[in-house]
């Protein structure tokens, strides 16, 4: 069990509260196992008719995985991160298949693993404070936790834009991209919690939900769809550089990311779009995650962004031109007996 997650059953709601506010509720392995155990227990518990997940503190639901632990594991050549990802992805799959209504309060920061424990749920609630992101390319990694499944199914090329920039999007953008369902002002989340005690999740949300503000991504979709339709990162960047000030600024942002991670991410998105279900995409993501753990990119990316915070990663290969197809292929190579088995209830 983990002291970093609180579990309460009240008025038929099994409430999961991520409780590491000083770490912006970042997920570690004990937290994942504890959530999995409670969700399994609540499946057959008649006292639980719906599940709610939220985050402690004022900053957000969850900033993702425990990056420092992954950094130390990668540096030492350990395997703890592999076990963590295998169980985290099983939890993501379990949430997507959960037989009871699963409500996520996606208020504030929702990044990486935070997307995994929320955006696969049935009732995904965002607010004016929501800042949702899959920022993995900035640390030499590729989107996981089913992120490539969700982003590959966003309208047009918006998911490609989100993945290659790693930039946060608003609650309104999240709804437009199919990553969330309902907009509720943050000041009314307490009212929604009260309503859940006496109503079904659908009815409770209907009492407080409002029309979201306009989506910025929807307004920019024309140039995003045009530029990101290309088959290579190089072509995408060329298109962005010739498509106006916003697109040029976007190209400069992408150029700061790991060249290897960018190419792996684009391949992962294009492949995920053709895979039949979340489980098959998670199996692919487990391959790319395992390969990233043994790369220099992940260690260097976390060092620059989280450890030393110099924001000056020294990527290797240093340019897109130096990332050959054999290197990208290696991230998708079959794992044999080590494949993610996809088992989740």
Please characterize this protein's 3D structure.
It comes from Actinokineospora diospyrosa. Keywords: Hydrolase. This protein is an alpha/beta fold and about 350 residues long. It has one domain (about 5-340): 2-enoyl-CoA Hydratase, Chain A, domain 1 (Alpha-Beta Complex). It is about 45% helix and about 10% strand. The strands form 2 sheets. The chain has a 6-stranded mixed sheet, sandwiched between helices. It has a 3-stranded parallel sheet with strand order 4-6-8. Helix 1 (about 30-45) links the parallel strand 2 (about 15-20) and strand 3 (about 50-55). Helix 14 (about 260-270) packs across helix 17 (about 325-330). About 50% of the residues are buried.
Q: SS-based structural class?
A: alpha/beta
Order of helices and strands: EEHEEHHEEHEEHHHEHHHHHHHHHH
Count of helix runs: 17
By CATH, the topology is 2-enoyl-CoA Hydratase, Chain A, domain 1
Strand content: 5-15%
Lateral strand order in the biggest sheet? 1-2-3-5-7-9
Query: Main sheet?
Result: 6 strands, mixed
Mean pLDDT equals 97
Radius of gyration over all CA atoms, rounded: 19 Å
What is the count of distinct domains?
Answer: 1
CATH-level-4 superfamily name? 2-enoyl-CoA Hydratase, Chain A, domain 1
Q: So, CATH architecture?
A: Alpha-Beta Complex
């Amino acid at each position: 069990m983990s002291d970093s997650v609180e579990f309460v059953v009240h008025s038929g709601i099994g409430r999961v509260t991520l409780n590491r506010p000083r770490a912006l509720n970042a997920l570690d392995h004990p937290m994942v196992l504890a959530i999995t155990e409670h969700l399994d227990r609540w499946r057959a518990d008649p006292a639980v008719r719906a599940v709610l997940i939220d985050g402690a503190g004022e900053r957000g639901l969850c900033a993702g995985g425990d990056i420092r632990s992954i950094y130390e594991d990668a540096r030492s050549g350990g395997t703890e991160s592999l076990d963590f990802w295998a169980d985290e992805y099983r939890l993501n799959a379990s949430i997507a298949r959960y037989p009871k209504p699963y409500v996520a309060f996606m208020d504030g920061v929702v990044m990486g693993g935070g997307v995994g424990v929320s955006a696969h749920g049935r009732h995904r609630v965002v607010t004016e404070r929501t800042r949702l992101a899959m920022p993995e390319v900035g640390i030499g990694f590729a989107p996981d936790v089913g992120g490539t499944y969700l982003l590959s199914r966003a309208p047009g090329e918006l998911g490609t834009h989100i993945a290659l920039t790693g930039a946060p999007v608003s609650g309104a953008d999240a709804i437009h991209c199919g990553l969330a369902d309902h907009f509720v002002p943050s000041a009314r989340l307490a009212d929604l919690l009260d309503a859940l005690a006496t109503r079904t999740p659908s009815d409770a949300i209907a009492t407080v939900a409002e029309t979201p503000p306009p989506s910025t991504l929807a307004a920019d979709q024309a140039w995003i769809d045009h530029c990101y339709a290309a088959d290579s990162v190089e072509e995408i960047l060329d298109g962005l550089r010739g498509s106006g000030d916003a697109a040029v600024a976007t190209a400069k942002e992408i150029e700061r990311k790991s060249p290897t991670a960018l190419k792996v991410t684009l391949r992962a998105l294009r492949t995920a779009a053709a895979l039949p279900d979340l489980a098959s995409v998670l199996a692919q993501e487990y391959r790319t995650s395992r390969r990233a753990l043994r790369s220099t990119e992940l260690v260097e990316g976390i060092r620059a962004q989280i450890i030393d915070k110099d924001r000056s990663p020294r990527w290797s290969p240093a340019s897109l031109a130096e990332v050959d197809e054999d290197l990208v292929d290696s991230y998708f190579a079959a794992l044999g007996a080590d494949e993610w088995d996809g088992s989740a209830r």
